[in-house]
Amino acid sequence: MAIPRDYIYELVQRNDMLDVAQSYVQMKRSGRTYTGLCPFHSEKSPSFVVYPETQSFYCFGCGAGGDVITFIKKINNIDYVEAVKLLAARAGMPLPAEDDKVGRMRSRILSINKDAARFFFSSLNGEQGRQARAYWRGRGLSDATIKRFGLGYSPDSFHAMVNQLRRLGYTEEEMLASGLVKRSEKGGLYDVFRNRVMVPIFDLRGNVIAFGGRNMGPEKPKYINSPETLVYKKSRTIFALNVAKKSADKRYILCEGYMDVISMHQAGFGTAVAGCGTALTPEQVKLISEYADEVVLCYDSDEAGRKATARAIQLFASAPVKLSVLNIPEAKDPDEFIKTHGRERFEQLLNGSSNAIEYELKRAKANYDLSRPDGRVGYLKDAVGILSAGAITATERDVYAGRLSEETDVAKAAILEQLKGAVRSRGYRERRQREQKLLAEGGAGRIDLRRTPGLGRQALGAVFAEQQLVAAILKNPDYLPVAKARVQPAQFADEDMAAAYALLLERADHRELIDLAGIAGELPEHAVALLGRVLAQNDGVGFSPGDVEVYLRRIEQREPESAHAAEKTAQQLNDYMQVLKDKFEKKA
To answer: Is the whole model's pTM more than 0.85, yes or no?
Structure first.
């Protein structure tokens, strides 16, 4: 969809970057800028910054950056056109009358999924669905639960879905885009899901965005899931969150699979959810944390379940929720336990679930024979590692040290001293890692020397100059005529900066406004993030004509003025990044 540039300019003017960000993130003023917890990754110390002067944002933790449209794209997991539509609705602006191919395809896929869900449900309740109905009821599900979750059945046919969608008027392109249909080597279309019980997956607005299909017998593969499409990104989707979010209960139960979730809801546990995909992701953790105050990990008791629990504990370590771990005895999963022991016994387990630290200590203890000296030493070593890594208070460490002393017959003071050293060492390592990450955000970390063969490390000064020149123009467009007379995009070493500079020149030729929003829509997401970082690094920097002259001369020469110029430039940038690092450490 080609959106007129003057429309984008008006849209951005009506949607202030700070106002939009504050509708998603709690922001706090810090001088000319505003900081808050990043909405794109889990963190406890704020590293997300909004810069009102340039109408941009940047996160020093995950590297996300850009303009207000980029922010809406990323936080809602939508494309550029959809982000423009959302901001237009927010500002009360009419949408430009342009063809929107991607938007129309997204709408058609949602329509296909809705019709497919109806078809699967109808098939389940028809003559051909007898075996599937017996399967669902054999899993203990009532008709009310089957209807509530829209469970269904895909007929044992290669063309049942294809024929149904054709009857409804969908094109081959639309069917293939939905992921419900594939094309064979001979060129024909065939159904992806055949002779399987079907589970629809909904987004937060109640749209069907994907499906999971399970075999009713021993055939492999047991499960088949929809591929990712325009409407479905499994790493950012939580199964049954559209139902759980309606509950007043803020204790969420995170399960391993769809069946566990459905069984729990039927038993009255309305906040049971599950991740989509094979492993929990940071995006899913962030999404759950937006609704839950407490999360109970309720994975299977097998080895795969224990590994999934360990990964989830790590991912939730920086999330603003209380985390507990459920130990399920005498059953391999929650579904089996509820069927065997009933709802009341399961609720007792939930109320007695241990926190993540206790869970990890219990697992560590099981690995050693505490009657032996080497067993006690090994257990203490693991326990100290767990306690020094966890986000716990000094008081909590004191309590756990006392428990460890009783278990191992080692003096509490000695354990506390060991803990103190481990915490100090870990803090040092984390500070070094943060420093290296921040330094990598500088010019040295951004240059891809493979793009500049033959220049080697000398490319550093040129690329830094390119970044600074673009930043100077975005902050003061009066420098653009001077730059245009001296350098062209082809002289740039960095492809992203060259593309940004070319767009700035084009905007100037058409006498259009020069700002980040005006070019962001025509650049890839990583390039927009880079521009966000460059502007963040230059917040508060006043570019003088002399500065611009230095940048232009460096680009014209395409090599440093001396053998040590590149290293000197890198050191200057690294010094500046050190100032930023110190600034954020003081806030933390």
So the answer is: no
